[in-house]
Amino acid sequence: MSKLLDPRNWASWRPFGIGLRKPNNYLELWKAFRSVKGNRGYAWRILNQGTCDGCALGTHGMRDWTMDEIHLCNIRLRLLPLNTMPALDPTLLRDISGLVGKKSAELRELGRLPYPMLRRAGEPGFTRISWDEALRLAADGLRDARFGAYLTSRGVPNENYYAAQKAVRALGTNSVDNAARICHSPSTVALKQTIGAAATTCSYTDWIGSDLIVFIGSNPSNNQPVAMKYLYHAKKAGTRIAMVNAYREPGMDKYWVPSNAESALFGTKITDEFFGVNVGGDIGFLNGVLKHLIENDWVDKEFVDQRTTGFEELRREVAGQSWEELEALSGASRDDMLRLARLLGEARSAVLVWSMGITQHAYGEDNVRSIVNLALARGFVGRDKCGLMPIRGHSGVQGGAEMGAYATGLPGGLPITPENAAKFTEMWGFEVPATPGLTATDMIDAAHRGDLDALVSSGGNFLEVLPDPAYCREALSRLRLRVHIDIVLSSQMLVPGEGDVLLLPAQTRYEMVGGVTETSTERRIIFSPEVEGPRIGEAWPEWKIFTELAARTNPEISSKITFTGTPQIRAEIERAVPFYRGIADLRKFGDNVQYGGRHLFADGRFQTPDGLGRFSVVRPPALKRPDGAFMVATRRGKQFNSMVHERRDGFNGAMREAVLMSEYDADRLGLPDGAPVELRSGERTYHGKILRAPLMPGNLQIHWPEGNVLLDESRRSPDARIPDYNALVTVRPL
C-alpha cells in the first residue's frame, strides 16, 4: 500500500475539512468516552478483546485481516453503552403508563433487563418472577400452540442462532426466522439460483487494487464506516469507484478517515463516477448496461462459453428491450448506461457491491439477478480483485441463515425438503418438519388474522422494522403469549396483549462463558471470547433460553436439544454445516477461519448441480407513476438498524423528519428548505420538512423507521418475501 501523499484524491485543501459539513469523528470518540462513565475499563476491554458486534466487517479488537491498521468506527462506539450499562430498576415497570409513547432510545437508556418479568392481560405493568416460573409459563403457552420465533441480527452469534433454530424445530415447526429476511433475503434467493452460494464471492482485500468497484444501492459511509478505510487505500492503489443510486450520498462523495493522517487532514474523494437512477429503476439501468456490453462486444466470451449457461436466452431478451423503455424506467440516459458499460468493459477486474437499495423491493430478487448477469458477462467471479458482494450491515446476518434460523432453510442453507428434513431428523434424533415455516412477515400476518397463538421474539422490534406499525401493533396485541428476549426494553414489549407478556433478560456476546463466533461479510468465522467485566442480574445466554424453553415444553426431547456450553454447540455446527469446518477449533481471541478461502469458485466451478453459473432473464418491472406522483424510498441516517443515535445526520444535515427532494422538484413546487409537507400513499400519510438534496427528480427519501407508516404491509417480493420499503406518494404543502 502506497504511503505517499496523493493530492489528486484529496477532498479539500482545508485541514480536517474545517467549515465543511461532515461528521466529527473525534467528537464521537469523546461522546463514547462519556457514555461509558463508570465502566470505562470494561468498555476498553470490549474494544480490544471482543469481535465487533456492529456491522459485518468483522474486526477482532481493533484489527482485521484486510490491513494492519487500527480500526474503530462510530457504530461500534455507539453500541458500547448497550454492552456496559447497568441494570434498570425493575420497579419502573410496575406501571408502564409513563413509558408508553417514549422513543426507543429513551427506553434503552433506562438500563439493561436484569430479571424475568411478567405482565398478565389487563395488568398495568410487569412484576419480577423467577426463571423457573417464566419457563413454566412460556412452556405452557407454547405446548400444542401455533407459534413462531424471530431473532434479530444485532450482535447475535452463530451459537445462539443454531441452538434457537434447533429448539424451535424440536417443537415441531420450521417457523423460525431472523433479520436477514428483511435485508438480504433476495440476495440469498438469487445467488443460490445463479451461482449456488448465498455469500460474497470475494474478500475485502480484493477491493484494494481492483480496477473498479461499483456500489449499487449501497452506502457504506453510513452503514459500514470501517469500509471507508478500505476505499481510501483502494483509491491510493488506483481503483476507480462508481456509484449507482437515486441519491448522491455525501459520505460516498467525500470522506475523512479519522485514523489515516492524509485522509483525516484533507479527506478523500471516494466516488469517481456517479450514475443516478430512479427508485426502482435499477433493472432498467443494469439491463441497459448489459445491452451495451453485448452490442460493443465487451463480453468475456471464453468465460461465458466455458463456465455459464443461459446467455443466449438472456441476450435475446435484452435485445428486445428498447432503449426508450429502459431509459423511462431507470431515469438514466442511454449514454449514462454506456458510460458504466465502458468502465466494466475496459476493467480487467471489478467488484460489484450492493445492499438494501437493491434488495428491499417487491422485485428484489430480480434486482440481484441483474447484477449477477453483469458479473458473469465480464467474468468477474472466482479470481483476484473480482467478486459479487452483498455487503452486510449487521454482524449476525450472514451466520443467521447459515445456522438454519430461517423459515425457508435448514443449517447450511439447505432448502427445506423431505430429503433434507430426513437428514437432520437422523442427526438430531427428533422429527424435523419437511415443509417451510412462516417467515417473519408471515408471522405478523398470521397473528393479525388470529392464526398464530404465540410469538418468541429475540431482540428486534416489529413496530420499527416492518411496514405499517399500526398493523404490526394490532397483530402483536392479538397473541395469547409473547416472549420477548432482549438486553434492553423496546416499544413492542409495552404493547398490551390478550394474554401473557414475558420479558426474559439476555446476555451480550461479551458475557457468554466459552465465547462465541460471528460470520463476517467475507465468510470469515471469527471467535469472540468472554470479556471480564460486570454481569447483569440473572441474564442468560440466548442459546440456553431457547433450549431450556424447548426442554420444558417437551421434556421427552430435552436430552437431544440441551447443550453444556458454546464449545459443544460449535462442535455440532461443524457436523451439521460441513463448510463451517474449523469452527470447533476456534477457542481464543483472533482465531478465525474463512470458509471457501479468499475466493469462492476459484477452481472454475460454481456450486450449482452442473458447476455452471446461470444467467437470468430479467424483465423490467411494470412501474407506472401517475402525473405529479413521487417514488419515496426509506433511508438510514445516524443510526444502527432501527436504533437511532442522533436526530441529525452529520453527512447531509438531515433531521429525522426530513423529506429529501431534488432542487428541480423543490423549485417546481415552490418548496424552500424546511417547508412542511404531507406525503400521502392511499390512506397512509407522513408529515415532514423539505430538505433539498442531490436526488434524482421524481424521487424522495425519508428516514427509516419513521417512514414505515407510508408502506403497504402487503407488498412483498415473490420468493424471499421481503417487504417493499418504497411507496408511490403525492406531496402536499402544509
UniProtKB/TrEMBL annotation:
Keywords: Iron, Iron-sulfur, Metal-binding. The keyword Glycoprotein does not apply. One of its GO terms (cellular component) is membrane. Residues 112-551 form the Molybdopterin oxidoreductase domain. PANTHER family: PROTEIN YDEP (PTHR43105:SF4), RESPIRATORY NITRATE REDUCTASE (PTHR43105). NCBIfam families: Fdhalpha-like. This is Molybdopterin-dependent oxidoreductase alpha subunit. It comes from Nonomuraea jabiensis.
